[in-house]
Specification:
This protein is mostly helical. The chain has nine helices and no strands.
């Protein structure tokens, strides 16, 4: 679960800046993309909703936390694909909107993953659970950081973002 959290986090916090720079987007516009990190800072505002309300779908099959995770992934995967389909020089506003959507979904995913980890692990295992989540974050960061830049040397940005979506899909399954 940490890997699935780390991929969109590092994508929004670093890789997107590299993408926009390589595509020749103005530096002041790229600087505004730092605002897409805000959902991680204010996720406490909607965490009570995710914590207290049953998801509208899949609850009876998967339970509270897993159903929220699946719903988030159902929106995250196509959002990643759509992000890469737009031209940064023509559609920067749409890219910003998708980056913000991905950041919101990623922050929501972090809320659910943390709650799920706390529920399934006993008190003695919490430290190891946090450590494994952080390891996953770092691996996800490598995938969406260096991994995407390596893939970009071979594929187009659309294909790179699609590859990230496939990786997340495999992990979710």
């Amino acid at each position: 679960m940490g890997i699935v959290s780390g991929i969109p986090l590092y994508l929004i916090l670093s890789t997107i800046f590299i993408w926009l720079t390589r595509e020749g987007v103005d530096i002041s516009t790229i600087g505004l993309f730092a605002l897409t990190s805000i959902p991680w800072s204010i996720k406490f505002l909607w965490s009570p909703f995710l914590d207290n309300y049953k998801s509208p779908l899949f609850f009876n099959i998967l339970g509270h936390r897993k159903s929220w995770l699946l719903i988030i992934q159902i929106f995250m995967i196509p959002s990643l694909i759509f992000l890469g389909t737009f031209d940064p020089n023509k559609d920067i506003t749409i890219i910003a909107i998708f980056a913000l959507i991905i950041a919101f979904l990623s922050a929501s995913q972090d809320i659910v993953i943390d709650a799920y980890r706390i529920e399934i692990l006993d008190d003695k295992s919490q430290g190891a659970g946090v450590a494994m989540t952080q390891l996953g974050y770092r691996l996800g960061g490598i995938i969406s950081g260096a991994g995407t830049l390596y893939l970009r040397e071979i594929f187009s940005w659309v294909q790179v973002f699609s590859c990230l979506s496939v990786i997340i899909s495999v992990i979710v399954i």
